[in-house]
Amino acid sequence: MSSWVLFLTVFLACTVEAVEALTIILAAGTSRHWGSALQGTGAALVALAATVAVLGPAVSLIPINALRLVVGALLLVFGLQWLRKAVMRGSGYKALHDETAAFAEEVEAARAAATGGRGAVRDWYAFTLSFKGTFLEGLEVAFIVVTFGNNQKNVPVAALGALAAVVLVAAVGIAVRAPLAKVPENTMKFVVGTMLTAFGVFWATEGTGAHWPGSDTSLLALVPAVALIALGYTAVLRRSNPAVKNSVGTPAGAPVEGSLT
User: Fold this and answer.
1) Statement: residue 29 has pLDDT above 70
2) Which domain, by its residues, includes 86?
3) Which residues contact residue 60 at a Cβ distance below 8 angstroms, ignoring those fewer than 6 apart?
4) Fewest C-beta in 10 Å: which of 46, 194, 205, 249?
């Protein structure tokens, strides 16, 4: 895998996670207390750094075949979950993910929660909400960086892709102070789910001791194959969805649920 492919894969995957974390932090800050929300975010980043510092070197000690088998299986779990959601949304069986709606739900829950602080934290709810959101999404980012980086023996490029995604999303979030609703998250999840699934199949197979024809270049066929299969399922499910069939007569310009964008 070239450095650019590694960078782009990690960048796209981490952008999705960063957008979801940003939505939670914004909800905690705008509806409760910005200082406490930022304290929670900072504490989560420290906890993440400690977790990666402990687990990162341990991963590198695992034999490469065993590592690829385990990581390949985990990537298949993550990738197929993302791909399934994208297919269900694209076929109209599942509502499209809406960051604005998610933001509104988080704000409503935050405003309804009890007030009060602990120690140096003025608003404990805002602190814990930001901490949990940042830590959980950050764990997925760390997993992507460590697994992709170690498998390709290029952790710096994987880390750079993650850092670029986080910095970009944070900069835009600070500038607009609103959830990034215009980010095509559903399409990104389809792309990332396709890539994670393809890499999962590739690495799990390599982990068993088998070898792909052409080594890494076989991904050039594997990734499009997974994408075409997913698009095929999407098309078949759309045709069988009564809601999509009934939308055939919808006036031009009216929204039709079930687009990947």
Assistant:
1) yes
2) 3-239
3) 150
4) 249
